[in-house]
Amino acid sequence: MNEHVLKEFYIPKYIIVPDSMVEELHRPPSSPVVVFINSKSGGQLGGDLLQTYRQLLSESQVIDLGQEAPDKVLYRLYANLERLKSNGDILAAEIENKLRLIVAGGDGTAGWLLGVVSDLKLSRPPPIATVPLGTGNNLPFSFGWGKKNPGTDRQSVEHFLYQVMNAREMKIDSWHIIMRMRAPKEGSCDPIAPLELPHSLHAFHRVSHTDSLNVEGYDTFRGGFWNYFSMGMDAQVSYAFHSERKLHPDKFKNQLVNQSTYAKLGCTQGWFCASLFHPSSRNIAQLAKVKILKRHGLWEELHIPRSIRSIVCLNLPSFSGGLNPWGTPHHIKARNRDLTPPYVDDGLLEVVGFRDAWHGLVLLAPNGHGTRLAQAHRIRFEFHKGAADHTYMRIDGEPWKQPLPENDDTVVVEISHLGQVNMLATPSCISKSIHDPSTPPSASGHHDDDEASAEESDDESGEERRKFGAADTFRIPEDVDIAHFS
After folding, report:
1. pLDDT, tens digit, for every residue of 243-263?
2. Which residues form a coiled coil (predicted)?
């Protein structure tokens, strides 16, 4: 890629850094980018990638997330763009209209940026490309950016930039999650992280006393996710993996080593022999009722087979590093059960169950899938009183151990559709859109009825849900070490 082509990505410093010297360009760049890199992701890869991008582009448009948070950068950028446009700067208007973002890190880092962009509520939100630098890399894989850690040399980065220039835009649903339980007489119901809080637990936080969702005498937590929420034994294995990685970070710098360690922990945690190592109270059916919102505001309880020990609410067609638990339902069975293929912008979650890791291995086979339970715009878990003193949960690859009060009111976890953001997709993208011309007509109308009924029957304020944004959901405290993000 010659210097002439690289100028198509270039953004002058005065656009990004207010009060810098104005720079004239012969013509606006066709694909201006701002790059966010978690320099501590992927072992040494993050730092190397940061250095290469800064050699190819200006230093001001390549942000080290270890030094500056994306919300500060983007708030500053868009405030400056508005000021420049009001002063008649044509270049500023062109760059705002064509701006694209790149984020390099794990799914947690990518979700952080998606949340910030969601919270900005821009009239023309910039689409986002994701560089796989984590262990699972479900977000990049879903949109065609691969799942293996990328090359960090000049040629590899130039190839990625070329893909960004030619990528198409797709929307992705975002999801709001709320958990409420009566405050226990003893102890705490705060989520227990694997040694230190991962990204999702900064996102999944206790609401303040002034929050409209707060109920006196109850502990209420809220958060959001883009890829999946899961509960049960898969989250337990993930919790063990993250705990081990944070105890011995030097042993987890290689992606293949990480994945093999994950498999070993699945064995030691009993995920392959669940019926022998774990009591029946760990079955999802023994632990909680699972309900989905149907038309006319009616909640319908799902039948969960007693063998199911893990349940996944999936937004993207990628789970655990590229597996697709939902698959593509046979058209006859799908019609009988009112199921559709998994679309990332239809406002529906795919709800899938697994018995154990052996059941999960069917995903490696052609047309393999988990136990399809439902598709829903809104889903609720009501935990049985005293069924267990804790369970394990996971959001977008980040797990935690959740204490459950034994002698108090039912614990409720509820997930509902929040909004959408724009992603960039390559030709090898595996995600499907309901707006694709090849989508069956019956799928495109599936979302509207469910969404309407959800809004009509909302027992919380619909307006408050619409106000709920990523500033609260995805904000990372300033004193958090970004090295702990996956």
Report:
1. 776 666 666 555 555 555 555
2. none
Give the alpha-carbon dihedral of 61, 65, 69, 73, to 10 degrees. Answer: 0
Q: In the block, which residue shows the tokens 């969702």?
A: 213
Q: Which helix (H) or strand (E) holds 215?
A: none
Distance CA 229, CA 238 (A): 13
Query: Which of 218, 36, 231 minimizes the C-alpha distance to 126?
Result: 36
Amino acid identity, position 66: G
Nearest to 346 by CA among 264, 430, 444, 209: 444
3-state secondary structure of 240: helix
C-alpha to C-alpha distance for 226 and 138, rounded to whole angstroms: 10
Q: Are 220 and 179 in contact (CB under 8 A)?
A: yes
Residues 258-290: tens digit of each pLDDT: 555 555 544 554 544 544 455 444 688 888 999
Strands 378-383 and 411-425: antiparallel
In terms of C-beta density within 10 A (0-12 exposed, 13-18 middle, 19 or more buried), how is residue 188 classed? exposed
Q: Is the pTM of this model over 0.85?
A: no
Query: What is the residue whose two structure tokens read 């993250």?
Result: 242
**3-class DSSP assignment, residue 75:** helix
| 162/166 Cα distance (integer angstroms) | 7
**Domains of the chain with bracketed CATH:** 3-166 (3.40.50), 174-425 (no CATH)
Angle (nearest 5°) at CA 294 between 289 and 295: 160
d(Cα 245, Cα 241) in Å, to the nearest integer? 6
Rounded Cα distance between 71 and 471, Å, is 8
**CA angle (258 as vertex; 257, 259 as ends), nearest 5:** 90
